[in-house]
């Protein structure tokens, strides 16, 4: 009840803020993403973890900080995504972190490249109470898969996923719900029919065909799919490309939740991969205070007045 009321307050204050063009924030974040680690086993070319290109510090979330965060947020937090950058299963206590959040009554989710779904991790995942597992797999043959997931092994992903689904069935568990996520690009769109067939055969709960964010889209890119139904960008009629969706001066995410890096920096959303807009540090002050501080509200004001002025918001489909 407390959580539902908090959510209502957030949504109502969001609507009100849009109407008066000033940030009004009632309630506390109902969604959080917490980063277990910045480390990753792959070398994906558009990702700072893969490229080892962070300018912010890199490392592993401490259990003490995690406990502190759960304690501070458990009364109003509905959804915890234990993922931001990096591969979460590289955190040595990853499934224990999930268990703690689950025991605190929070719906838990994570995203993985599924290279660590071995017998031990599958068992621990099923026991942890994890509610949702998103597996990224952007190709159905090794050559297409590794074109983006550099250093990845498709057979390992497929075996891990099959093992998890098989063990879940044997244990008669409903969770975690498994979502197979496929980022559609010009290089893999031809594999969609084969992918659909495979997903059906192994019995994933949901197949998500997602549009891909492309950093330099104005001049076109071979990553933009030919089927524009899977693209965030369309030709502008003057030889360039533009965002399909008109940018509006709003963003519900800034009223709904926040992202916390492994070392406790609060950043606005998952588009701020390198932590350009740090609103505060949970090591210095509680999240409730950061959530309503001047810096956060200045960011919200800019969103309501002229979102295009914020670099990370220019190419965002929210
Ligand atoms: S990039 Fe900007 S508009 Fe997009 S979710 Fe983040 S804050 Fe909102």
From TrEMBL:
- Which UniProt keywords are listed? 4Fe-4S, Iron, Iron-sulfur, Metal-binding, S-adenosyl-L-methionine
**Any keyword Electron transport?**
no
Can you name this protein?
Answer: Pyrroloquinoline quinone biosynthesis protein PqqE
Essential cofactor(s): [4Fe-4S] cluster
Q: Enumerate the GO terms in the molecular function aspect.
A: catalytic activity; iron-sulfur cluster binding; metal ion binding
Keyword Acetylation among UniProt keywords: no
Supply the SUPFAM superfamilies for this chain.
Radical SAM enzymes (SSF102114)
Q: Which Pfam families match?
A: Radical_SAM, SPASM
Residues spanning the membrane:
none
**Domain of life assignment:** Bacteria
Return the InterPro entries for the record. Answer: 4Fe4S-binding_SPASM_dom, AdoMet-like_SPASM_containing, Aldolase_TIM, Radical_SAM_PqqE_MftC-like, rSAM, rSAM_sf
Annotated Radical SAM core domain residues = 26-243
